[in-house]
Amino acid sequence: MHLTADQENMLNGENGEVVERLFRLLVRLGDIYGAEQMIPVGSVQVAGVSYKSIGDPGLEFLEDFASKGAKVKVLTYLNPAGMDLENWQELGFPRDFAEHQIRIMEAFRQMGIVTTATCTPYLAGNLPRFGEHIAWSESSAVSFSNSVIGARTNREGGPSALAAAICGVTPNYGLHLEENRKPEIVAKVDAELAYNSDFGALGYYVGKQVKNKIPYFKGIGQANTDQLKALGAAMAASGAVALYHAENLTPEAGRMDIGGLETIDVTQGDLDETYENLNTGELPDIVILGCPHASLREISSLAAKVKGKSLKKPIWICTSRVMKGAADRLGYIETIEAAGGKVVADTCMVVSPIEEMGYATTGVNSGKAANYLPGFCKQDVVFYNVDELIRRLAQ
Ligand code: F3S
């Protein structure tokens, strides 16, 4: 791989031990994937933030780097943490867990990382431009930035994203290259897509079919950015789709040639069956929305739906601290809390220890959450649209 003089210096340890170790990791990755050079990144999003995911070894690794003076070179955000960093006590997160999580956040802060912990950084102040090279980790954020924004990122692991943040570059391979962004299969959709959960079911179904290929959707019609984030998140979870194109909806679709590609048909029956397969429970102990983290539009819509109601069981909506602040100023939080709900920031149902908090059956409207909750959190899942979930909470 061709390295610049500055990069040779990083490799030779002239910028310190941490930079050397992390730059070596990037060079190794580049060698494995045949990158010819490093490219500067505009921003980074680092996964591996929850104490539940990284445990003591991850915490020690981060504290070691922070104590050696490691600092990021570009705008860097974090994936969701294991708890709401302000309201963890009120929400019932265990104290021991909280103490470890706080140490993790402090190590990141010392490295100059913005401790906004979210899988929707593009809604919270980290918005790349079309064509910009970035190094993001969380699979739904990777899908959204590649597909809906048209930025360019591979799906980074926690260490390679941290390396990109501290070195300011990433190896130029995979989805950074124009030739690797072409569709490989067409998904022709003939089904009703009314709710965000329908997009989650569609994404789950197509992800299972196409695995790690790049799909090109026809027939979706209209979709807002919340629905496109639900679609991409589910596809990245059931398959390994890091980029999709959708006719008349995503920015690179118009310049893609789909002639001669294999086509899969997606029918209403396929989506109905997906709902059926993902449902393993009947009545939820708790409903958790906001996977990926909710936009202001989603919080506002929930507030309108629960206004004046008194819910028998809890409903949470997960979001970034930034969106929570905006929702607070608009009175949505007051409305949701008056109905018995909570707007939970910094975390999500999958990376928080909900199984230790007395919940066994969780209701979700996200195909991605429905995919992960049984394995990660030992939950039975109730997967429906938000209206049906609220109806079931009342039973
Ligand atoms: Fe985000 Fe957690 Fe879902 S990280 S995409 S809310 S599983």
Structural write-up:
With 395 residues, the protein is α/β, with parallel strands linked by helices. It folds into three domains: 5-178, Aconitase, domain 3 (2-Layer Sandwich); 182-276, Aconitase, Domain 2 (3-Layer(aba) Sandwich); 279-393, 2-Layer Sandwich (Aconitase, domain 3), CATH 3.30.499. The protein has 15 helices and 14 strands. The protein has helices at residues 5-11, 17-33, 51-67, 88-91, 95-110, 139-149, 158-167, 196-210, 225-238, 268-278, 296-306, 321-329, 332-338, 367-377, 386-393, and strands at residues 38-40, 43-46, 75-78, 135-136, 169-171, 185-190, 215-218, 245-246, 263-267, 286-289, 315-319, 341-345, 361-364, 380-383. The strands form four sheets. A five-stranded parallel sheet has the order 12-11-10-13-14, sandwiched between helices. The model has no long low-confidence stretch (mean pLDDT 97). Residues 79-80, 119, 138, 140, 233, 291-293, 318, 348, 350-351, 368-369, 372 line the site of FE3-S4 cluster.
